[in-house]
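Case study.
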Amino acid sequence: MSEPNNRRKKEAYVRLPYFGINRLIPFMKPYRKRLLLMLLLGIVGSCVDIVLPLFQSYAINNYIARGVMDTLPYFIGLYVAVLTVQIIANCITTYTASHVEMMIGHDLKQTCFDHLQTLSFSYFNQNSVGYVHARIMSDTSRIGELVSWVMMDSIWHTSYIIGAVAVMFAINPGLALAVVMVVPLAALLIALCLNKLTRLNRSIRELNSRISGDYNEGITGAKTIKTLVVEDRITEEFRGDTGSMKRTAVRATHFRGLLFSTVSFFSYVALALVLWRGGLITMEQVMEIGTLSAFMSYAQGLMDPLLWLIDALSTVINTQVNIERVTKLLQTESDVADSTEVVAKYGDTFEPKRENWEPLVGDIEFDDVSFTYPDGEDRVLEHFSLKIAGGTRVAIVGETGAGKSTLVNLVCRFFEPTEGRVLIDGRDARERSQLWLHSNIGYVLQSPHLFSGTVRDNLRYGKPDATDEEIYEALRTVSADVIVNRMEKGLDSEVGEGGDLLSTGEKQLLSFARAIIADPRILVLDEATSSVDTITEQVIRDALGRVTEGRTSFIIAHRLSTVRDSDIIIVVRDGKIVEQGKHGELMHAKGYYHSLYTRQFEKEAADSVL
Amino acid sequence: MRLLLMFLDGSKCYFAASILTSLVLTALDMVNPQLIRYTVDTVIGSEPSSLPGFANGLFEAMGGVEVLRERLWIIAALIIGVALLAAVFRYLQRLSNTKAAETLVETVRNLLFSHIQRLPFAWHMKHKTGEVIQRCTSDVDTVKNFLSEQLTSILSIVIRVTFSLIVMYSMNAKLAAAATITLPFILLYSSLFGRSIGRHFKECDENEGALSAIVQENLTGVRVVRAFGREKYERDRFRKQNDKYTSLVLRLSRLMSAFWGMGDFISGVQVLIILSMGVVSSVNGEMTPGEFIAFMTYNAMLSWPIRRLGRMISEMSKASISIGRLNDILSSPVERDRENAGTPDMRGDIVFDDVSFAYEGCPELLSHISFTAKAGETVGILGGTGSGKSTLMYLLDRLYELPEDGSGGRITIGGVDIRDIKASHIRKNIGIVLQEPYLFSRTIAENIGITRPSLEMEEIRAAARVACLDETVTGFAEGYETFVGERGVTLSGGQKQRTAIARMLTAKTPIMVFDDALSAVDAETDAAIRRELNTRLGDSTVFLISHRTSTLKSADVILVLDHGRIVERGSHEELMAIGNGIYRRIYEIQTSGSEESGAAKSGSEEEVSE
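After joint prediction, the assembly is written out as follows.
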């Protein structure tokens, strides 16, 4: 199965309509009240910010200029009242913003995760673990941040600008006009810089993840680097990356610094304008000094929100990629899906209707099946038909990478036939739910995968209510009871992340026991013995006969001795089935199986060639 | 502290520049309020000038207050002039600060990376990669933030506050004292709260890590999840952790918004106190309106920085923890050669002389191993899991060192103790293929040719052909340019092993070690590779570690290791002659079945004779 190589292509610059915000609406809906509250209170907060300079101006005009302080207590009271309003508004907005941020992130994470549970294997073959992981964990958080903080910041600062301009016009339109004229100038400058700034931010992020990747490689691959003596080369390459990180970061600051100091310079220009024109008016007694001071505050305060708005806009532009990737994940449809009728009768992945489930016997039939992998071009099965009676032991043999898993993938409905049908107990597999089928399958993989938790948690994975007696019985069946007895805490021992604390052989025996505890009707052993040592292999091979008794089983193996006495042996070469039959028949036919077998066992012959 | 100085190497002058510019910038920021005060009081109002003598002289030289009254634009121009200067310094300050920070982080990253590359193999085995990566990324970030943002911010805040206070005291001591008294409260409040919130931050981080681990395990174990039909369980597991994480963050943000709200309130009250006191003293004639305005401006420069200061002080402990952890890595001793270690010819006999070895804190793994591998010979090593066969090779490659005092025996190559040979020289001359080889995330061609950057494509392909890889690779859409690893194609275990074999072959080493290097390859490919290899090995000395007797059979001498001892040694024939020998037993397990049909035997003979 060749995999598409497009993953390494850099993600293109994404431009979505409405910056992609419209795609998030379903996720924002449950929080619309909170969002509204957040925005409203944001406006309240910015209004208070606008009102505060007026207090100073009132104090100057009425107390200082006139020398009377009779209303000062009321003044203080009002000030405290306004302050309280602002603080309450601020508290609520910041909390609401983080609430919305977290909840939308939470919902997106859950939805993505749930959706992943329903996606078919072709998705996981095409997308690396790291890629999908980043979609669930970091993209969703960034989106949450966008919807809450970025939105609130934008509203806050926009309303501050509008409010401040309005107040200035109300006080003195002529002077206000002089100040406001500076704004378009600054805005123009900002608009010109925005694109560049956004690009620089993005390349910094990319470089950052490259450096993390370098660390990952340098540390995970340390052993290999040492044996190859390429430390210097790898370190040199790393220096290259940190160097360009530094250059890019400095360039970005160079740019940001230029932009920010120019904008702050503009704010002083506005201040100077007010002092000059306003000073003249004040001298003519048209305006009071307090008002002039308020005007100066507004003129200077106008520029900061502009800077914040740039940042917000640049975040919006950069977050489009995240939105695009998450929505793409959510829109990916499973290649294998249960029809509505099936769901109605048998339930779906999360809400199974077990009461309607028929018992599974284990008769399997391939009926004129043709199959092409979704990401492949070649037909790997062509009008293939085969009847497998319940309890049959089927072996699938062939070289590494020859496509031995295809038949099993179809039986397990990890993939569906392109043409034809797979019948389970005489009925098309698509007539029953996936979960029904999967609940009857036991699967042992080439590289055993355990989940973090205790040995018991892991063994019960296929049957959550299994008793310790059942567990021990299964362990004895596969001779794995010694492993558990050796452990300090027995079944309560932790296995570590991914089973790290155990050896591969131990993990394999446990995953074997796990499959048996589920008491499946169909058992799949996918190269279960290839990564274990000879002794463990012998143990597994001994257990095989006991375990496959009365079950339909598929044994994928490249060591042929394991499967010699199977009821039927299917021989795969270059993705296609080339021979099938019993061992004796195949040997007699002297075809590909015969040559595989002889080469594997008649080592004298092979070694005399060496 | 010594570590900090090491980190600061190269960035010291940038830090100095950053502090210096920050000083100038703050001084410039102090000027404008004075200009405004002068304008309000003297130009617009009629107070006598309170400017320092030289500035007064300057104004007088320009024609005195009268001229300024008519030409107010002069003051505006002055403000703009000061602002321009400030803008330049603001830009320089940002730039020097970023340069300082980025140079620092570059230094730290390079220091860490190259140190890690030089750390002994044992260190890498002892430390979990995930943790080390975490150290290198997040701890480095913490240190960077501490030095570049916090430390410089603290300095610039102190500068700012000091300057403001000086100016304020010179204007009105009583009012300035009132402003000063409130500052410690703000500082104390901020730092106390910051400290108490740190615990919550840590808890949130840990729970996010747990959530991330669930995703990781779900994605890597997707086959197990599906095959056991446990999607619902996985969803619930994720949901539980997702809910927990979200509610923890929400609790934190409730605290945070309360904290900010309270902080806002305290600052607001401080402003109010100064405002009302200012009003009173202005009305009493102790202060002019211009002074009042200027005073309020300076006061605004106090409260915000003080609040930041408080939080930073509380966060400083984080940095010291991070620095401590980085120190753990950087103070671990690196690999060292003996002083007079040389680079002798490596084509001689390899002798293990009474070698015993135990990993730190573990029982003895190898005991009294003695054997000689003659130059050009092939030595096969057979042993169960944990028998110490890989360790034997690690010792030869000096990945682990025998005790200096010679109590663990010695290993010689061509008569020279390997401790007297440079480690890099040894490793350049010994090619090792590990059982689970690590491939770098770059193209297949680059992976194969990593030890020799100048390698021709033809040589790479030649090596790949020997490893039976060429056909597989040319089958990929992008051939040898196919990217492997996280960002590219995932190779199967067997493909990885074959790539690693090709990689080793291009290094053309006189000693080669195959550490179970063909375990994931089926017997047929195994035989094909060995056949090809045999024609290429030439006079190389080869160690073949395997649990497949067919692989070992052709070796000149086979060592059977059991619990760290050599229990059998000899050629295949000699070992087979031992009545109930281990080798013979394993051989018979592995070949059981070949005696089953004479048809198989005769078939193979036919094939050979063809």
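Observations recorded in class. The longest helix of chain A spans residues 231-283. The domain at 393-402+440-609 of chain A is CATH 3.40.50.300 (Rossmann fold). We will return to this complex in the next lecture.
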